[in-house]
Amino acid sequence: MNLDELRSVQSKERKKDSLQNLRPSFYQEVGEYIAELEDERERVADQVDDPFSSPEIGRLTDEIETAKDVVEAIYERRMGKLVKQASLAAAGMAANDEGLTAEEADLFDDLVDRIGSNKSRVLDVLEGVDTGTHVEPDAPDIGDETAPSADSEPADTPPAPPQEPPQGDIPADESDSLDVEAGLESGGSSGVTPADVMGGDGPSIDDAPAEPPSTPPDEAVADAGSTDETNGGDDVDRVTVRITQDIGSILGVDDREYTLSTDDVVTLPAQNATPLVEREAAEPLE
Prior knowledge:
Elements: H1 3-15, H2 26-47, H3 55-90, H4 102-126, H5 142-146, H6 172-185, H7 194-198, H8 217-231, E1 238-243, E2 248-251, E3 257-260, E4 265-269, H9 270-278, E5 282-284
Antiparallel strand pairs: 1-4, 1-5, 2-3
């Protein structure tokens, strides 16, 4: 590994839209090359009186800094391409994952798994499936606040003695009222229920008039018919493109199946052609 090889790799990476093939140990070799330069610079610095004015130390320093800048530019350029290929692979489309370094191959597999997992999570949310991400707050334990403690002392106040019923005759209307109240408090032991007290002749929920439908049936049918006529038309905007990557079979919005291979020239519905152009899997010809 040397600086000329690094610059050659950088030049090719800039010119190609796809990833160029690199050795799996490429970044490891670059790291060893820079470490050797740093060791050599330290040896020269130990042999000269003034390291800051030494031409050899200046040359080695420039080569080290240049190598770091070049390999960083290579990495950033390749990362943009790698993310795009991982997105295609996660979507089930043909992707180029050949010629990756060991570090890039691990990142590619991780990105594909994460994109697929995130897509499934989003679809579950749209379908109303509980993904377990929402955490309910803990309900306050009211029982602990109201329950008597085992160590609490009994109250000093004695219980109030039972009240004697008033002496004398009670009018008939007041006696009936007391009987009703006693029946409600004792859970109906006297045979009287709240419905009996309020009267059984009042209106019930079943007697409430039903709400009229918001849309007359005839209008709903008319609206459905107009929608079918609009969606069922044959007018589909089409675009002629040249395929730049092997894609395989897709189902167009016009319900037709298209088999797309590299260098194919085909006229597709605009809704299918636009995503391919945006992903650089196709290029427009008109």
